[in-house]
Amino acid sequence: MGGIKIGIIGGSGVYKIEGVEVIKEHKVSTPFGAPSSEVIEANLHGTPFFFIPRHGKHHNFTPSEVNYRANIFALKELGVEYIISVSAVGSLKEEFPPASFVIPDQFIDWTKGQRERTFFGNGIVGHVSVAEPVDTQLQKMIVETCKEAGVKHGAGGSYICIEGPQFSTKAESNIYRSFGASVIGMTNVPESYLAKEAGMAYATIAMVTDYDCWKEEHCTLEEIMKVMSANNQSAHAVLKKLLPKLHANPFTIKKENTFAVMSKPEKLSAEQTHILEVLLK
């Protein structure tokens, strides 16, 4: 496992990338419970990476039920430094049609307090800035790779995260559009914030499936499935170029958690000390 620094969180379609070889499945126990599944160690044409299917192997967790803390902690404990999130989203802007990708640089949290969104608490006090939740170096690398792969994409913008599992009402969708958000999804918060607390580089490949519900445009399930299939193929093309590029060109991560902890080390329990050792390493 030594030297595997890339982690992917996304759908099970990652398994189907041509050339991916599954090496091993790691059952990881964390202080925050179990991850969505075993952490899958895989190899793509010589590039090693870890993968977690966000909603479980059988898509059995809703966005609100995903154990985001366990997923991020498990990857960090295994040595991951760079996280590539692959997510389906709705578009809130005309210029981002279905089958295009958006690589956002900001998130808006519109969830409703049901999700555990921090590693701190229960005796550990820490404050980490999430002013820049996306690592700009990783984002730039993804944007460049989308260009190389010929995938239509947009760089920058905000991803608004709602609770789900219901989609928006039209009134809500238009409110989100008034915020200036580019895309809407249900999973990248608190995932991105937790990666920041863990000192990891995080960026999202947001794959547009539809125009949410603000646009008067009928879309059948069959049409959506066709878009999702096309998106998966485009994601495969990007990842096949991105993973070896990132593996060969690692960069220094700006860790916002270095001086975040305010609790006195001598007052912490063994488990609390372990949590901080993993997060701060």
UniProtKB/TrEMBL annotation:
Name used for this protein in its record: Purine nucleoside phosphorylase
Superkingdom classification of source: Bacteria
InterPro entries linked: MTAP, Nucleoside_phosphorylase_d, Nucleoside_phosphorylase_sf, Purine_phosphorylase-2_CS
Keywords: Glycosyltransferase, Purine salvage, Transferase
Residues that bind phosphate: 12, 54-55, 87-88, 187
Cross-referenced SUPFAM superfamilies: Purine and uridine phosphorylases
Taxonomic lineage from the root: Bacteria, Pseudomonadati, Bdellovibrionota, Bacteriovoracia, Bacteriovoracales
Pathway assigned in UniProt: Purine metabolism; purine nucleoside salvage
Reactions performed catalytically: a purine D-ribonucleoside + phosphate = a purine nucleobase + alpha-D-ribose 1-phosphate
EC number: 2.4.2.1
Miscellaneous note of the record: Although this enzyme belongs to the family of MTA phosphorylases based on sequence homology, it lacks several conserved amino acids in the substrate binding pocket that confer specificity towards MTA.
